[in-house]
Amino acid sequence: MTIDPALRESLRAASRVVALTGAGVSAESGVPTFRDRQTGLWERYDALELATPEAFARDPSLVWGWYEWRRAAVLRAEPNPGHRALAAIARAVAHFALITQNVDDLHERGGSVEVVHLHGELSRPYCGECRAAYRFPDAAPALPADGARIEPPRCARCGGRVRPGVVWFGEPLPARPWQLAVDAVRRCEVLLCVGTSAVVHPAASLVDLAAHSGATVVQVNPAPTAADRIVGHSLRGPAGVVLPEMAASVWGTR
Ligand code: BJW
Fold first, then answer.
1. CA distance 198 to 205
2. Ligand 1: which residue has its CA nearest to atom 44?
3. Pair 192, 169: CB distance under 8 Å
4. Superfamily name and number for 1-31+77-124+172-254
5. Measuring from each residue's beta carbon to the nearest atom of ligand 1, which residues come in under 6 Å?
6. Is the pTM of this model over 0.85?
């Protein structure tokens, strides 16, 4: 993939760069996306049965079992060259912020620091009643069978049911990560929008915010997305290929 020389120069000149990532950046690590045809989670599972507060209230062991299955799968996954390239870009740019919608920890394990998680983290469950943090046992969980029901643990403080540490549909995004994201995007000169379908709000509105604030918006995705109408440049291809090439060609990383 060759980056247009004018684009390369404007990326190189930028001192404030933000990357907004979605499930596609972890796809090459074997972590399924949500909406890709055939492989996306929402092709096989009903979001309303699993990813809403109402679903958890209705059938906690089904929901907890599904998230334990995903957590166990993520623990077995490894960061890919796309995660590592973003960590390298962060080291090369004066001010860099990494904002992710992902609930896995592959950015961190790929070398990124201060990752802003807009939709929570699989590794940080908390009590659904008193919101006290719950710590998983150190031993990695066995991979549960697909569809296994697992009773959620109880909170040591109040006895309430522990819930997955993710943001479900209909829930507000955590205030501090959201504010950090808005502040960084408002100020950035470049937004790299990587591996997201850009259909889930309010995260997707960050792309509009960047464009309206005058940033150069560069999308990295093998397929068309809802952000196509607003992004200035679309680099079509997998993040694990495009990002390392971009990092090397623009910022001289290896
Ligand atoms: C590759 C690749 C490779 C493949 N390389 N790329 C405005 C308009 C319409 C609706 C709303 C709105 N505002 C709010 C809503 C409602 C709702 C929403 O957005 N619904 C839309 C779906 C219609 N939003 C909410 O409910 C949010 N809350 C909220 O707004 O609260 C308001 C409130 C305020 C005050 C009080 C109360 C409420 C919360 C949204 C939470 C989203 N949660 C999920 C699940 C998290 C937990 C879990 O993991 O189970 O987050 S949904 C799911 O989608 C997950 C993701 O983070 C999110 C985004 O998905 P993403 O990352 O874009 O993945 P995909 O699969 O969609 O796309 C993958 C992309 O990768 C594709 O483009 C591929 O081509 C690409 N790809 N391989 C690069 N190798």
1. 8
2. 168
3. no
4. TPP-binding domain (3.40.50.1220)
5. 22-24, 27-28, 33-36, 40, 51, 101, 103, 119, 166-167, 169-172, 195-197, 199-202, 220-223, 225, 238-240
6. yes
